[in-house]
Specification:
alpha+beta, Uridine Diphospho-n-acetylenolpyruvylglucosamine Reductase, domain 3, Enolase-like, domain 1, 3 domains, 5-stranded antiparallel sheet, 4-stranded antiparallel sheet, 10 helices, 14 strands, binds flavin-adenine dinucleotide
Length: about 290
């Protein structure tokens, strides 16, 4: 079946809502008009409370190709429209425990049933829980348009608070995670003002791989809500390399490891409080990896 975005736009008067049935139809719409993409709508609609909805809305939530989780020889591919509930239900290796823990923390069950991984990444909030866990997994994003496709590391896709490298005509189709070994372990910890349904004051993701001697051969620690975009902690990561998993790991953390963070004072906490919270969350995450 051929889709022309022009025909779709001309066939209806604005405002126009299109629910794409396949990726080709979605790309045709994006090539033709200034469509805003809608998936679960859990960021999209709250973002339009005080302003009118855009005239052209492209709903991609029912595109089957965006709703799959696949294991490939090179790693895993999670479709952009896969919901947090689907990630929680899917059998994934232990290295995904951090992403699953983040999924469990995203809103309540209704939000997890509707909100997608792609929406979390494209919304690019500094407080997006999924992004922190994905950074520890060295995730990349797959962007497609009628002109072609490209894959970007997530760390390059995120340009700042609510800013990404996505071009207007591009659709995020998948998140790609490179293969890791069976010895991988991961966790995610979030601090908010109450236990559930809360925007993060700070959050930390931690991921390690172990060699055959039980020593850390790869480490990734990421922090969110403490800078315009979530950050990895490369100094701490390099100190962890070669260490056995032992209860003294948290003592490796010192102030200099957090120097790349630029937390702000806001209604949820002061910058000083946030840095203190991050230090505690990092230490607790390292201890949790021992279990
Ligand atoms: C009550 C409530 C609680 C929440 N709690 C949390 C929380 O604890 N932690 C957290 O991280 N988030 C939270 N959120 C935010 C939100 O639920 C998540 O970010 C969710 O993953 C967004 O997914 P979505 O499918 O709803 O995105 P949408 O709202 O549909 O889209 C979000 C943005 O991404 C764009 N977009 C979506 N899909 C694509 C695509 N495939 N290609 C290109 N652009 C795309 C849209 O244009 C839009 O700009 C909460 C939201 C609510 C309403």
């Amino acid at each position: 079946m051929q889709f022309t975005g022009k025909a779709i736009v001309e066939a209806a008067a604005a405002p126009l809502y299109v629910r794409a049935s396949c990726t080709e139809e979605a790309l045709a719409c994006l090539a033709e008009g200034s469509f805003e993409v809608l998936c679960g709508g859990t960021d999209f609609y709250p973002g339009h409370i005080d302003r009118p909805l855009p005239p052209l809305v492209l709903d991609v939530s029912e595109v089957a190709a965006l709703r799959r989780i696949e294991e490939l020889p090179t790693g895993w591919r999670i479709g952009a429209a896969v919901t947090w509930a689907e990630i929680l239900e899917h059998p994934l290796p232990r290295g995904f425990d951090g992403l699953k823990a983040a999924a469990r923390e995203i809103g309540g069950v209704q939000i997890q049933n509707t909100g997608s991984i792609g929406g979390n990444v494209c919304n690019a909030s500094p407080a997006a829980d999924g992004i922190v866990a994905l950074l520890t997994l060295n995730a990349s994003v797959r962007l497609e348009s009628l002109a072609g496709s490209r894959t970007l590391p997530l760390s390059e896709f995120l340009l700042g608070s609510r800013r990404t490298a996505r071009l207007r005509e591009e659709l995020l189709t998948a998140i790609e995670i490179p293969r890791f070994g069976t010895g991988a372990r991961a966790t995610f910890k979030k601090l908010g003002h109450r236990r559930y349904l809360v925007i993060s004051v700070a959050m930390v993701g931690a991921f390690v791989e172990l060699d055959e001697m039980g020593r850390i051969s790869h480490a990734a620690i990421a922090v969110g809500a403490c800078s315009a975009r979530a950050q990895r902690l490369p100094l701490l990561e390099s100190k962890l390399l070669g260490q056995p998993l032992q209860s003294s790991l948290p003592s490796l953390l010192d102030e200099a490891d957090l120097a790349g963070l630029t937390p702000q004072d806001d209604v949820r906490g002061t910058a000083v409080f946030r840095l203190d919270a991050v230090a505690s969350l990092v230490r607790r995450s390292l201890l949790e990896l021992l279990r």
